[in-house]
Each structure stands twice: as structure tokens, then as C-alpha cells.
Amino acid sequence: MEYRKLGRIGLDVSVVGLGTEYLNKKPRKTVVSVVREAIEQGVNYFDVVFAFPDYRDNLGAAFEGYRDRVFLAGHICTGETNGHYRMTRDVAENEALFFDLLSRLHTDHVDVLFIQMVNSMEGYQEVMKPGGVMDLARRFQREGKARFIGMSGHRPPAALEAVESGQVDVWMFPINLAWDFAPGRKEVFQACAEHNVGLVAMKPFAGGKLFQQKDRGSITPVQCLHYVLSQPGVTAAVPGLKNLKQLNAALHYAEATQEEKDYLPILAAFQQDVEGNCVYCNHCLPCPVGIDVGSVIRKLDRALKASGEPSGQARASFYNPSRIRSPKEKPTERSAAASDCIECGECVERCPFDVDIISKMQLAAELLEAG
Ligand code: SF4
Ligand code: SF4
């Protein structure tokens, strides 16, 4: 495993870390085996993003006895309601959520505390206002409960503002070879390098989408990781991995040949616009009528893919409903149907990828709920 200094923090972290979001809802046995195997193979950077109690408890069990071997990245501003992700900037709630995180992970501190989803200038100003969540994070830092402060976000203007402010030690940003051609993204990498802010790459596989686009050619986890780790300023990538097979495929990076890492032959084929493509992250929740937006769009995309239709920019008039077959899975009990959408637009405001959610709900209602 290769290790790099995490910006001005100066600590060595493994270039391949573990994003744990896909270990949510997995059995404890799976979570423990993936985390422990990662540690044995030299991974020392672990990102713990959600507030779901079972998810945190399972990770707490996995880190038991290994805390001194891992660099733990925890998040605030990530709440939950009935098993659904919910962003919160409420200071009192975040204080409670952070204490819950420490308790369930059986630790007295995290190594870096991320303020999550700072996607707009307004969002940045909100977290930085006196008495806001940055002040809370600083208090935790003074109390020794958080060694360093980070932020995560998806959009360049807020990222540049934060990185250049001198207020954050680490910036977490989605980086992969399909999205980096959008304007402003390379400037974020450069700013992190210039200001010695650690840059941690989330979504190096674009939420798994890079492996599904066979029409563009096949690509490996090693190529994806090598692209990300070749960008200026990037310290580590944290792929979301849900089992040992995926873990081993990613950790093959540590021993891969230059030939295996070479991504140039497939780079051009994977260029695409980030805008409008759902990665099923559910950062758009909560929906006031209870629609599990990411899950609905995932089902819609699967149905469109199975029918041979493109799944990118959905416009109802473009598709022929008779060619679309509904996926076998049924909506979860908690999720309202796409047709319940009241077009309030709240989710659209929150989506970092500018997905036309309302159109997708209309299309999903038309294609997945018929009959
Ligand atoms: S619509 Fe946007 S925020 Fe919601 S799941 Fe898709 S990419 Fe994520
Ligand atoms: S626009 Fe529809 S899906 Fe989005 S939050 Fe409003 S009701 Fe929910």
C-alpha cells in the first residue's frame, strides 16, 4: 500500500481508503470482515458517513481493538429519519449526533470531522456563521474530540471558498474520470495542492456507474483509482465497497502493474457531463411526501437500461412506454410512489448533480406504476 501525507495535517494515510456507505444495511459479519481485511491489507483511512444506528454499531464492532491503527473520518450534518438520510445544520442535533457517533464507534475522538454537503456559497456561509456548525466543530477540536476539521461538497465555487479560507484541513470532493471535465473542478484540485489542504476523493467509481456503461468499453477499479490518484492534490480515494470481492478488486491497486493502471486508452470514451445524472446518493432527501428519490430513479434507470433506452437525460416524450419493462422489485414500504410527487422542488434544490428529479418522477410514474 502506498501512503501520502494528508495536506498540512502531515499524517500518512493509505491512498486507497474505505468509504463505508455501501456497508449500510449489511450484516455485521460482512462489515467486520470487510473492515478487518482492509486493515490487514494496509488501509488506514476509513470514512464513516451515516447516522444510522445499526450502521454505526456494526462499524464500532469492526474497529474494536483496531482503533489505534486507523484514521477515522466522521461526519456531522448527516442525520436520519426512519432509516433515510437527512441533512441537518441544526447545532444541537449535530452535537447529539456526534456524541452518538463517538459512543457507537467506541472511541473518544475522530481524526477528521467533516461538515457535510457544503454545496453552495449560501451553504458555506450558513455553516460558517457565528454559532453555526463550524463553531461546534471547533469546540469539539478544542475538547480533543476531533483532531482536524474537514468539509465535503460537490461544487467548485463553495469548494474554492472553503479551501482558500484556511479554515479546513481536508476537502472531500467527488472525483472520477467521467466527471472531471465539468468546468471548475480542476481548479479545486489545484487550490488544495497550493493551500496544502488534504484532498480526499469520494465516488471514484461514480457510484458504480463506470462499470455499467459497457457501450463505452470496460474499465477496472484499478484504472479508476489510478486516474483519481494521478490528479494534482489528491491524497486518497475512498471507494464505497460492499463486500470482500469488491474490496480485493480495489486493493489490487497496491500491486497492479503500470499496464493495469493505464487509463488513457479508455479516457475519452468515459467523458460525460456530470449534470443530470443521478448517482442514487439520496442527498436530495427528505421528500415531504416520503419518496425515496434515489431508489425510484435507480429503478427507472434499470428499467430504461433493460429496454435499451438511454438512461441519462430523461424526457418523457423521448421514450416509448411499451418498450419499458418494470423491474421486479417493489417499492419499499416506507417509500411513497413517484406519482405522489407534488413537484415542490425541494429535492431539486438539494441535488448536487442538478438531476431533473421532477421529470424523472413523472417518467417513473408513467413507466413503473402502469398496470
Ligand atoms: S437526484 Fe441527485 S441527490 Fe437525489 S439521489 Fe440522484 S444524484 Fe443523489
Ligand atoms: S419535487 Fe417531488 S420528489 Fe422532490 S421533494 Fe418534492 S414531492 Fe418529493
Describe what you observe in this structure.
The protein has 371 residues and is of the alpha/beta class. The chain has 2 domains: 3-268, Alpha-Beta Barrel (TIM Barrel), CATH 3.20.20; 293-368, no CATH class. Helices cover 36% and strands 15% of the residues. It has 14 helices and 12 strands. It has helices at 28-40, 53-63, 91-104, 121-128, 133-142, 156-165, 185-195, 221-229, 244-251, 258-261, 264-267, 293-307, 346-350, 357-368; strands at 3-5, 12-14, 18-19, 45-48, 71-76, 78-81, 84-87, 110-115, 146-152, 170-174, 198-202, 234-238. The strands form 3 sheets. It has an 8-stranded parallel β-sheet with strand order 3-4-5-8-9-10-11-12. A two-stranded antiparallel sheet has the order 1-2. A hairpin with a 6-residue loop joins strand 1 (3-5) and strand 2 (12-14). Helix 6 (156-165) packs parallel to helix 7 and helix 12 crosses helix 14. The protein is globular. Residues 311-333 have low confidence and may be disordered.
- Helices and strands, in order, run as EEEHEHEEEHEHHEHEHEHEHHHHHH
The total beta strand count reads: 12
Supply Rg: 20 Å
Q: In the CATH hierarchy, what is the superfamily of the largest domain?
A: NADP-dependent oxidoreductase domain
Report the structural category.
alpha/beta
Mean pLDDT: 86
CATH architectural group of the largest domain = Alpha-Beta Barrel
Total domains, how many? Answer: 2
The largest sheet is: 8 strands, parallel
Principal-axes shape call? globular
User: What helical percentage do the residues reach?
Assistant: 25-40%
